[in-house]
Specification:
globular, two-stranded antiparallel ribbon, 175 residues, mainly alpha
């Protein structure tokens, strides 16, 4: 391989490592597609692609048939998100955390926990959910690996659409 592709694959590879016999081996590189995709998502041009008017309405929204969990809703209202039985503090920098387990971060950024607040009922849950979405949008204006991964993005969009009526009930009129 020569040229730009060779440079990109080499730059994406992990540093050389030696085995017990002293032979140098190179860790597997990310694919060229992954490297190009990451460069594109981090570029200012990608932000221009995202600009535009949102649709005025949805033709249909599939209902969320999974019930929420009252214990997880109480934990959320107390400032803790529970994902896979593990807590994550919902502090001011929660959306920028990169040190937590990726599964925990995917659960946070996917917003599956909205159903817990919805089924718990009450205005406190709706206000908290709307505030979380607004703070997520502010904190995640730029691409990041976990928050913008395909599965997490899909979960987030579906959850925001499915819970719009609940979210709007606790949000300011410009939400």
């Amino acid at each position: 391989m020569t040229g730009v592709a060779s440079l990109m694959v080499k730059s994406a590879a992990s540093p050389d490592m030696s085995d017990e016999a002293g032979a140098v081996r190179v860790a597997p590189a990310r694919s060229l597609r992954q490297v190009v995709r990451e460069i594109w998502y981090r570029s200012p041009l990608y932000n221009l692609v995202l600009a535009g008017r949102p649709p005025a309405a949805f033709l249909a929204v599939a209902p969320d048939l999974w019930p929420g969990d009252a214990d997880r809703a109480e934990a959320l209202l107390d400032g803790r998100l529970l994902v896979a039985g593990r807590p994550l503090a919902l502090d001011a920098d929660v959306w920028r955390r990169t040190d937590a387990d990726p599964l925990l971060l995917a659960g946070l950024h996917g917003f599956d926990w909205l159903r817990d607040l919805r089924d718990h009922g009450g205005d406190d849950g709706a206000r908290m959910a709307a505030h979380c979405i607004e703070s997520w949008i502010t904190a995640n204006a730029r691409w990041s690996a976990v928050a913008w991964s395909d599965q997490v993005l899909a979960a987030r969009v579906v959850n925001w659409i499915r819970h719009y009526d609940f979210l709007a009930s606790g949000a300011p009129s410009d939400f």
